[in-house]
Each structure stands twice: as structure tokens, then as C-alpha cells.
User: Fold this.
Amino acid sequence: MTKKSTEVAQKIRAEVGKVIVGQEETLDLLLVGLFSGGHMLLEDVPGVGKTVLAKALAASIGSKFTRIQCTPDLLPSDVVGTTVFNQKSGEFEFREGPLFSQLVLADEINRAIPRTQSALLEAMAEGQITSDGVSRRLDRPFFVIATQNPIESHGTFPLPEAQLDRFLMRISLGYPTHEEERTIFRLSRQEASRTAMEAVVTPEDVIEVQDEVRLVHMNQEVEDYLIQLIRKTRNWEGVALGVSPRGLIALGAAAQALAVIRGRDYVLPDDIKYLAPKVLAHRLVLDSSMRMKQKTAHDVLEEILNDASVPVEDDAAQAAAR
Assistant:
């Protein structure tokens, strides 16, 4: 791994920090998603900065950015694109929809009807869009940030498990602290703060980091720990549906990206332990006994993490060095 990958992360952090107060952990998790080729679901109440964060990230990497405001009347063709007849040329031609971008913000995704939600599946999973039998590749890096309001249920369509499984992580921003809120209030009155964002890296830099993330070393002991966690979710009491192999691959890729952000070319068990609740919680389906006990997927994962045998970090680092 080159120093450039870590420098790219640092530059993005610094630039986004000009308009986003606090949220350092959230930004790092977004970078994990971006660098690992995953997609993110931000679940939080309105007004905490989800849209501003997505716009700031897009501006910092100089990528094409589109925002899709999801509503019940939004059709699949509205996001994918449609074929129209050009009277001048006498031919049918395809007009690209907003998904043909690099960073896509799907705002309030749970307000879109299931047909429109499913239109995102192929783009997120395959990096391509098929319309009228023709598949069209999307430009790299392709990164979807979707938001949803967990409080309102009227007029919403809950994301099915197949759609949730396409997201690398489901995370929440939370409210700022007292001092962070003071800073936000003061920045809101400075017009310059809204236009100060500039590209500090290029999309090509991001693609280079994505390629390097795949080369980050993970020794067999750490692999075994990762697989052990996934397999435990399938047999744990109270879990109706455990994590699939897609979840295994997602957690491994996220751990590799986190290692790069932290300046390492090898994965440590702590990387997996830290990311497991964030990557796996939305992939678990609990049975009714857990809901009656008011236990959440995060509670179950904490139990699994405490039960699993963790390889010694020094051994993992030494094995990586060899």
C-alpha cells in the first residue's frame, strides 16, 4: 500500500470538515464505504446534516453528484432513464436518468414505491443499468448514499431484506454536542462556509485507493475470526435469518478499507470487531422471542462478539509483516 491512499483519506477528511462539524466517525465510515465499493444507508431524523454531508463528500472528490428526492409517485424510469424518439434524427435514443452519476444521494428512499427501490438493485450490485435489453456500465467510483427517516411511517415503504443487503452499512449521525451545535449555528450565518468546498482529490485517486484496498493483507487467523462471526449469526438463539456470504464479503472489504484509512496494509481483528455491528446489524432478522425481550440486532451481535475467540493482534501484525 502506498502512502497516497492514506493521504487521500486525510485530504477528504480535512475538506469535508470545513462544513461538517463533528461526525468524524461517520465520515470515516463513509470513506470505508466509498473505498470498499459499498453503499451507505443513513437512518436519522431530518435536519442533522445527512444531505450536506453527502454533497460535501461529492465536492471533495470532484465527482459527478445527483440527488434523487424519493416520493411515492417516482417511477423506475425517473431514476434509470428512458428511451425517447428523436424526430430530428428519426431514431430512438436513450436519455440517462440521475443514476448515471458517481455519487448518488437517494433522499428518503423509503418513500419510493418498491418498484422504484428495486431499480437501484442492479446499479448498486453490478455497477450497471439495463434498459430495453441493453446494459450500460456506470462510471467509477459509483457510490450511493441513501437516507431514511426512522420515525415517520405514514406514506413509507419499508426496504425489503434484499434491498437492505445491498447496503454495506446502516448508520445514524445522531445529534451534535452542545459545543458542536454552537459551531453549526455560527457557521450557518457565514455565507462563505457554504461555498468553500473544493475538490482536493480526483475520482481517479479514489479508484486507485479502491484498487489498493483489495490488496490489503488478511492472514488466515483473521479470516477464521471473520468467518466464525458470520457462522455464529446463523446458529445463534433468537436469530431467524443470519448473515449471508454477501455479508461476509462486505465485512471483509470494509475491514480492508478501514486498515487503509488507518495507515496499515493488513487487517487486525479489532478492525473486524469494530465494524461488525455496523455492517451486519441490518442483515440480521430476529425472531419474535427477541422482539418480546426488546433485544435488537446490535444486542445480539454484541453477545456474538463476546462469545467469539479473538486472535492475538500481535500475531496478526507479525504474520502480515512476513
User: Anything to note?
Assistant: The mean pLDDT is 84.
